[in-house]
Amino acid sequence: MSQENVELARRVVDAVNRPDLGALLALMDPDVEAGSLLVAVEGGYHGHDGIRRWWGNLLGAFPDYTIEVLELRAVDDWTLANVNIHGHGAGSHMPVELTVWLAAQWQRTKCVTWRAFDRRDEALEAVGLRE
Predict the structure, then answer these.
(1) 3-state helix/strand/coil string of the chain
(2) What tens digit of pLDDT does each residue of 14-72 get?
(3) Residue ranges per domain, the chain?
(4) How many alpha carbons lie under 13 Å from residue 108 in its C-beta half-sphere?
């Protein structure tokens, strides 16, 4: 199952990079709980409606947003990815590049929990690991 979860996580990245909201939603549990790096500002996102809201906010701000996977591994029913995100501001066209950690929990081939972290130690803790 661990390798299957890694492949599912790769499909999420592919859906975001295309961009294909339908393909992304097909990988999300109807009750998915998600949190971007801006969770303190935006709050979390719940369910498919929450993912649609996140998607609209994201692509509204960065229409050419893409994810480059640097590292991706399975940890029990979680995947942990270190990624570079790239894009340009919608109004300013200023380039944005940021390295983040993504933790996703999988059940029955669907993502049930997804969180973004700016620090490796926080991401490791989220999946039950320590440095």
Answers:
(1) CHHHHHHHHHHHHHHHHCCCHHHHHHCEEEEEEEECCCHHHHCCEEHHHHHHHHHHHHHHHCCCCEEEEEEEEEECCEEEEEEEEEEECCCCCCEEEEEEEEEEEEECCEEEEEEEECCHHHHHHHCCCCC
(2) 999 999 999 999 999 999 999 988 765 677 899 999 999 999 999 999 999 999 999 99
(3) 2-126
(4) 6
Give the pLDDT score at 39. 66
Tell me which residue of 91, 99, 94 sits closest to 68, measured CA to CA. 99
Fold of 2-126: Nuclear Transport Factor 2; Chain: A, (3.10.450)
